[in-house]
Each structure stands twice: as structure tokens, then as C-alpha cells.
Design brief:
alpha/beta, Rossmann fold, Ubiquitin-like (UB roll), seven-stranded mixed sheet, 14 helices, about 20% strand, flat
Length: about 400
């Protein structure tokens, strides 16, 4: 799996429900803090237009599925223990929480849209807490966690830098190399962080500024306001206006379970569903689906699928590329049509794709072939979303 998204937030906000709705994994869900102690891992999918619509033959995905020309491309999720103020100092389950996030490429921070929880995840009554206040303290905890990693032994390294020369960004990268951060992102963060020209003036605020820049550039995220079915439409509009995706993980979970049981026809991300056989539903199920339908008609769906896709597509800026071994029939060596769909950063090249498929393929790269246009491509060719590419390598 090439992309890992961390689901974060304080305890009891609905992270596990959101995770379960996206992955269809059964996890413990309860209305008390620290329901999640061990992190949950699963796979969700983002939608992409499949090139098989141009080919006229159906694709054969190794992972995910393809429904009526819409490819579902896998993304790995990790749902970690709830975060409380002081987590970077080890409060709550802080150290474990932060360690679980080391390899995440981006974050979805879940907040409670009902505003009924204090900062420790305890119930205090609906509307007593501003959900968006969570965004500040959770961000601050992650910044401080990263700042602590950077600052460990930093002064000694800075003295060495002054006496022996070298590059500051290289020193910083060495300290955080286990976090899956691109060295180019570190270089840009050092440039943006207003580092004092005289390194003797380096203090904690400089480290915090640097940590914030590194996170902003290399591990960005979005805010999801959960429990959207429990608030009025006007409140949802206000939260959307403040930058949150208002979702109902509960209703998405209901729909996915019902679809799995062949009670409804529903594709994640659609704005409605169809009951397949009303006679199979009991009265409680009918009432539940009526509530789901009402919510979806007012809100344009549960908005759960849209949230993960906004992060992957617009914030992490990923595209989907299809590597093949036969550029004419778009197959692998076994004749499977478009078996692989790979997520890559916008701006990635044909050479980047070769290395992503296999390091040996990248090292032996000669050229690439575009399956749609049949053009010969060099290693610097910038990939486009939906490209079908064959890599030609030396034997």
C-alpha cells in the first residue's frame, strides 16, 4: 500500500465510527474515552475514472474494484488512540498515539460536531464546546511532538555545523528520517521557517516554527466534523464555512452494512440509495433507512467518501496512474487488463512511476510508452491523472 492516512482527534469524537464506515472493518465503538487503545488499520478507496471505458473491455483490478467505469483505488487508514492535551508529554495514551502516526502521509482530524465533549472526551452536554477548538490543540500536540524529535541533541549538532560546515537541512532531515518525510520538503521548510542567520540565537520558538512548516508541507490534513446527523442543517452550514467536512459516519456505516447484506443498492459517495426488497426489512430497519434518506437528501449524501477523496486529491494532490506491460491491450504479462492503479504525487515523472513499480525497473529505465496516445516518453515526462504507461527497461 503506497498511501497511509492517519485518523486523529480527541477521545470519543467518532473516529472509530468514521474509520469503520470507510473500511467496513468491525472495531469497538462506544461513548466513552479511549475506546480505541490499540490502533486499528484498514483499507478504504477513492474513486477514479477507469481507462477501461476507452478500451471497451472490463479491467481486472488486483486490489479494489471497478463499478460502471469507476475504479476504487486503495488507501490505507490508521485509526489511533484519542489525543488529549499534553499528549506530547505522555499524557493519556499520547506517546503510543504519536508513535503510531510516524509513517502517515496526511491526517484526517475528526471533531465532534455536536460540541458535547470536553478536551478529554468526557460528555458535558450538547453545544457546550466549540468543535473547532479541537483543531488548535490537536495540531499543537503534533507540532510539539515533532519539535521534540527535532530538538533532541540539536544544539550539539548546530555547534558542529558552525565549526565544521555542512547543511542545516541535512542535519534536520537526519533527525526525522524515520517519519517518511521527503528531504526536499525539509529543505523547503528550513527556507520558510525564518531560521536566524546566527545559529546561536536558535531557541524553542525556532524549532516550533520549523516543525509547523515541515508538517504543513509534508503531512497536511483536513478536518471532519462527525455526527452530522445529530445537528441542525444551519449548524452544519456554519461548520462547513469554517473549513470542516460535516459527515455522518453512522449513516454511511448503516448503508455499507445494508449493501453488504443485499438490502440496498449503494455505491460509496453517491447521494442516494435504492432499497432492493422492502419485504426483507423489519420496521426498525425501514425507519433507520428513512432517517438516512432524509439526511442524504438535505446534505447531498453522508459526505464520508467525499472527505477522504478531498484529502487525497486536493490536499495531498495525488493522481492515479495505470502501469501495464502491453501498451496496446493494457495488460500485464498474464493478460489481466489494467490490474494496477497507483497513487502518485502531482508532478511525478515516468521515472518516478518506474521506481514506484520496482526499484530495479527505475534503475534500468530506458523509456516509457503512453498506452492512450502510443507516444514514446522520456524519463522526465510529467504524468497525468488516468495515464496508462508501459515502462521499457534494459535487460
Amino acid at each position: 500500500m503506497s498511501l497511509l492516512v492517519g485518523i486523529i482527534g480527541k477521545p470519543n469524537v467518532g473516529k472509530s465510527t468514521f474509520f469503520s464506515a470507510l473500511t467496513e472493518n468491525s472495531v469497538e465503538i462506544a461513548d466513552y474515552p479511549f475506546t480505541t487503545i490499540e490502533s486499528n488499520k484498514g483499507v478504504t478507496y477513492i474513486r477514479s475514472k477507469c481507462p477501461d471505458v476507452y478500451l471497451g473491455n472490463k479491467c481486472s483490478p488486483k486490489f479494489g474494484k471497478c463499478v460502471n467505469g469507476t475504479r476504487f483505488v486503495p488507501v490505507e487508514l490508521i485509526d489511533v488512540a484519542g489525543l488529549v492535551p499534553g499528549a506530547h508529554e505522555g499524557k493519556g495514551l499520547g506517546n503510543k498515539f504519536l508513535d503510531d502516526l510516524r509513517r502517515a502521509d496526511g491526517f484526517i482530524q475528526v471533531v465532534d460536531s455536536t460540541g458535547s465533549l470536553d478536551q478529554n472526551g468526557n460528555s458535558i452536554g450538547k453545544g457546550k464546546f466549540d468543535p473547532m477548538d479541537d483543531a488548535g490543540f490537536v495540531h499543537a500536540e503534533i507540532v510539539m511532538w515533532l519539535a521534540n524529535i527535532i530538538s533532541d541533541g540539536l544544539i550539539r549538532n548546530l555547534r558542529k555545523l558552525e565549526s565544521e560546515g555542512g547543511k542545516l537541512d541535512s542535519i534536520i532531515y537526519d533527525k526525522i528520517s524515520g517519519l517518511g518525510i521527503d528531504p526536499k520538503d525539509v529543505t523547503l521548510a528550513v527556507k520558510n521557517a525564518a531560521i536566524p542567520s546566527n545559529l546561536k540565537n536558535w531557541d524553542d520558538q525556532v524549532t516550533i516554527r520549523l516543525a509547523e512548516e515541515i508538517l504543513r508541507i509534508s503531512k497536511p490534513g483536513i478536518i471532519v466534523a462527525s455526527k452530522g446527523d445529530r445537528i441542525e442543517s444551519a449548524e452544519a452550514v456554519k461548520l462547513n464555512g469554517r473549513g470542516a467536512h460535516v459527515v455522518s459516519g453512522d449513516y454511511e456505516l448503516v448503508l455499507r452494512k445494508a449493501a453488504k447484506a443485499n438490502l440496498v443498492e449503494y455505491i460509496p459517495g453517491e447521494t442516494s440509495f435504492r432499497i432492493l426488497d422492502e419485504g426483507k426489512l423489519n420496521s426498525a430497519q425501514k425507519e433507520a433507512l428513512r432517517k438516512v434518506s432524509d439526511f442524504m437528501s438535505h446534505n447531498g449524501g453522508t459526505k464520508t467518501q467525499e472527505a477522504i477523496e478531498d484529502l487525497v486529491r486536493n490536499v495531498l494532490k495525488m493522481i492515479v496512474v495505470y502501469p501495464v506491460e502491453d501498451e496496446n491491450h493494457w495488460t500485464d504479462k498474464n493478460g489481466n487488463i489494467l490490474p494496477d492503479a497507483i497513487l502518485l504525487k502531482q508532478g511525478s515523472t515516468a521515472l518516478d512511476l518506474a521506481f514506484k513499480v520496482h526499484s530495479d525497473l527505475g534503475e534500468r529505465f530506458i523509456r516509457a510508452l503512453n498506452g492512450k496516445t502510443k507516444r514514446v516518453l522520456g524519463k522526465e515526462y510529467v504524468l497525468e491523472d488516468g495515464d496508462v504507461i508501459k515502462i521499457v527497461a534494459a535487460h
